[in-house]
Every structure is written in structure tokens, then in C-alpha cells.
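Run: sequence + alpha-L-arabinofuranose -> complex structure.
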Amino acid sequence: RNAHLTLDPAFTVGPVPHRLFGSFVEHMGRCVYTGIYEPGHAAADDRGFRTDVLQMVRELGPTVVRYPGGNFVSGFDWEDSVGPRAERPRRIDRAWRSVETNQFGLAEFDEWAREVGTETMMAVNLGTRGLQDACNLLEYTNHAGGTKYSDLRIAHGTKDPLDIKLWCLGNEMDGPWQVGHKTAHEYARLAAETGRAMRLIDPDIELVACGSSSRAMPTFGSWESTVLEECYDVVDYVSCHAYYEESEGDVGSFLASAVDMDAFIEEVVATADAVRARGKHRKRINISFDEWNVWYISRPHHDPSAKPWDVAPRVIEDEYSVTDAVVVGTLLNSLLRHGDRVTIGCQAQLVNVIGLLRSEPDGPAWKQTIAHPFEQVRHLAKGEILQVQASGDRYESAKYGDAEIVDAAATHDPETGTVTLFLANRDLEQPARVEVGLRGFGAERVVSATTLHAGEDQDRHTTNNQANPTAVQPRPLADVELTGGTATVVLPPLSWSVVQFA
Ligand code: AHR
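>> structure
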């Protein structure tokens, strides 16, 4: 297999958006309880935060974390989650058929996020609640004091405002599964008026309108159009959500998932820009891709042995393989390729629930295979995103059509001169020889080169798990050369590689 890539420092997509490498903590399954929070665990600190998980989250370095849902938020009364713990009610969570104890809430999340060093992206409930409750919450979090809800925060022990900048106007309101699901018109009016009222309290907030829950939604396209016609002046972003899985043995389509993500992004950009043109607006609406991942959604959601209405049941604790890690790498590449318009990204979710990390109650924590590409791109994509001029072998995928064998994205850090390539080889059997034209960068050496693939005694289904938590991880890639401005990299079959030159 062969691919040829040409890069030039003058041809850029734009700067790497800081918020592109976010994640998501939902009150769902064991993401919060026995995920990030487990009082009584040997590694818990005095606030109940699991420090083993905290340490791994710091290593991953999510730049923004969306909270508290997800489908959960559409039935959530935020007031239940603040104030003295002993007085917080246990509530039914209709979205995930479980019991929410509210022992971890707004203030605890804010403290945890500060410990991690990440920004909070807060979602308001536009399913069962509306404008006034969203405004009350914003007054509680962002208003200095001297009013009912800001004084309530102070009475709860948090003197300074939490100063949350990023707000989602509901979650997946186009989905019939959503508690309080709405038509595009119903949602558009509610989101516009809620956003407008919130801005009257804090004009500095940034607002995300719900887009489509997937590109396959029957309302995809018309939903974005209707919502943005109504909300264009009020919001800054429209959201995209996408989950991919290998189904019916069609690994070729699964590996081409980023082809679908590329198209999804480009179609939403086109729709937003069409509304811009029709409305003669000046600003551009960007995309907040605030839920994306591999999710084996067609498998049952719950552990069938779990009782209904449990606290923190085991829900969608997918165990990720080598193949899944390669696909996650290509999804990160897709976000990077569109970094001029996708300026927020949240991988879903952080721990246990389709998690980057896994943790066991009273047990260990470990990084899933998919954590590795996330961590690498988060830390190594620096400076400017480069346009990648690519040619080479391709294949036809059943679901998404034409796909390149080698999926690529690249960045250039003008400060250090480092060029970083993110490369996936989608061929299951054969290595791929990639030639990279780097003239113009003055690169003289290979700084680092790693690859993640099935090693000895492993195959593409190999996972990291409690028994073997580090089975799959990036290892040194030897087959890299740089001569006279041209690099040659040989990628192992079905692999995710990161190579840096300077
Ligand atoms: O991330 C899991 C769920 O997927 C979220 O709650 C919801 O928004 C989406 O459907």
C-alpha cells in the first residue's frame, strides 16, 4: 500500500483550537459514581475524588469537559444537586432508568474540574424545564452576589462565581428518546428566547444550540436550518453528535467512519453558512462536536443482570480494541482537518461509560486503547493545522463509499518548527508506505515516532482490561527516514501512528 502526502507551511487550515480536545462527564452509569467520585475508595481524597482517575485525567488533558449530560440533563433539576449533601434528594433518572443520589453536584464538579485544570461546559435542561430555570442556574453560577440565587451559592459555601463561559441549550432535542423531545420549531423558539434571556444576565457567555444527534437523523439538515434561522444572532455554535460501531462484520465501513464525520461536518457548515447568507449575518456559526466516539450501540444498554432503578448501574461499559483505537484516531484527524469550523470537541465519555478510562469500584483504574490516540493528539497537535495534499491507494466501503487507505492530519508549530503527522493505516493485512513532502519546513531530524497496532500474540480485537491494562499502547516506530525534505514512514497494518519532524 502507498500514500503520498505534501505539506507546506503556507497552506494552513487555521490554528489548533484549544477546545477541540474535550471530553464529557454525564450522570450516567458509573461515569460519576465509582468513576471520578468514590468516597471510601483507597485512592479517594477527602472530597471523594478518585486520585488514581484524577491523575489519568490530567495525563489525558481534556481542555473542556461537558456536564452533567447528555440525556440525563433533560430531566435534571439542578437545585437538587447543590447545598448540604444530607438534604439533597434521591431522584429518579428517567433517561437511564437509575437513581440519582445527588451526592455529587454542581459545586463538586466545579472543584473537580479546577483540580483537573479543565474548562466546564454546562448544559441546561430544555427538556422538562425552560427559560427561567436556565436563568436561575446561570445566576447561581455566574452572578457575583446580592440576588436570590447568587446568595444561595454563597450560602452554600462558594463565595466567588464559578464563571462558566460555555453553555449548551439542552441536549439532543431532535431525538424522540429525549425526555421533553421537541420539533425543530418548538426547540428553535425555546433556545432563542432562553439564550437571549441568559445573555441579559451574562453577556460574555458562549451558547451552543442543539444540532442533530447524528447525520442519519430523519430531520438532519432541516433541523439545523430551522434552529439557526431562529437562533443565529443568539448562539455561537451548533452541535454535532456521532457514534460509530462495527456492525455485521463490516470492518471496512467501520474503519471509514471518519469519511462520514468529514461529510457530516461539511454539511453542517454548508447549512449554517446558507442561513448566514439568507439572513445577511456577519458572524459565522461554528461547530461544537460535543459527543463523538465509538459506541457499540446495537448491543444492549444495560447489564441484563442489573436491577432497574439502581444507583450507578453498569451501563454501556464498552471495552475498546486495537481497531477501535485506530478509528478513534481517524475521528480525531477529522476534527483536526476541520479545525477552522469545529472549534469545540468533546469525546464521550471520560470514564466507564464508553470511557477513555475504566475504573472498578474498590478496584483499579486503567486507560482503554482509545485513550492513547486522544492523549497523543491532545498534547502533540500544536500551532497551525496544515492542509494535507494526499494521493494514494483507496478502497470502497459499503456504508460510506470511497476511503483513503491512509488517513492523515498534520500540524506545524512555528515556535519550535515541529511538524507532527497523525496517520492511520486502514489496511488490515498490509503495511502502508507513506512518502511525505516536507520541503519548506527545513526539517532535519525525526523527533519521535510511535505506533499503536496489534503486537505479538495480539490481534485487532485485543483490548486493555483489568487483567492486562497496558496490553495496547503506542510503541516506538522504527521505520521512519528523512532525507532531503522527503520523509518515508512505513505504517504497520491496521495502525495509528504519530511522527514528528523538526
Ligand atoms: O453519551 C451517551 C448518550 O448519547 C448521551 O446521554 C446522549 O446525549 C447521547 O445519545
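>> summary
The domain at 385-501 is CATH 2.60.40.1180 (Immunoglobulin-like). The mean pLDDT is 97.
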